Amino acid sequence: MFLNTHQIIGLIFSFLLLIFVIEMVRRRKLLEGYSLLWIFTSVILIIISFWQNLWEKIALLLGIVYGPLILLIFVSLFLVIICLDFSIKISKLTQQVRSLIQKIAILEKEIEENVKKNKKHKRN
After folding, report:
1. CA torsion angle 33 27 76 67 (round to 10)
2. What local confidence, expressed as pLDDT, does residue 112 receive?
3. Tens of pLDDT along the chain (124 residues)?
4. What is the number of structural domains in the chain?
5. What was the pLDDT predicted at 1?
6. d(Cα 3, Cα 49) in Å, to the nearest integer?
7. 3-state SS string over the chain?
8. Is the entire prediction scored with pTM above 0.70?
9. Whole-angstrom Cα distance, residue 45 to residue 119?
10. CB–CB of 73/58 below 8 Å?
11. Number of neighbouring beta carbons within 10 Å of residue 70
12. Domain that holds residue 95
């Protein structure tokens, strides 16, 4: 079984992605929870790259004439899902930061009031 150029390129990029994700986890720049999704995606891309009949069958089912285009479709779909997931997480974090800022402002105000009360009590 010989691999064609598309398969070789797909395999190279898939393995590079897998190695990159593992290295980012090792350096603690990527949390394990996020890495699982990227590792899963790398493995799926490796399988699709290796198994040419699979992508041709999927392309045929979807009515796509050029089989390797299915890789681009999967990658694009994955990136859209990742962007949506990150947007949701960023929104939650923004709300949490806003809440923390408000709590800090309230605590700072209470500290200022307590400092003023302590100064008045010391004078008396």
Report:
1. -110
2. 95
3. 677 887 888 889 999 999 999 999 999 998 888 888 889 888 888 887 788 677 778 888 988 888 778 778 887 888 898 889 889 989 999 999 999 999 999 999 999 999 998 888 887 6
4. 1
5. 60
6. 9
7. CCCCHHHHHHHHHHHHHHHHHHHHHHCCCCCHHHHHHHHHHHHHHHHHHHCHHHHHHHHHHHCCCCCCHHHHHHHHHHHHHHHHHHHHHHHHHHHHHHHHHHHHHHHHHHHHHHHHHHHHHHHC
8. no
9. 68
10. no
11. 20
12. 5-123
CB 67 within 8 A of CB 53: no
* Amino acid letter, residue 39: I
Specify whether the backbone of 69 is left (phi greater than 0), alpha (psi in -120 to 50) or beta.
alpha
Q: What is the token pair recorded at 26?
A: 């090792």
Distance, in Å, from the CA atom of 86 to the CA atom of 107, rounded to the nearest integer, reads 31
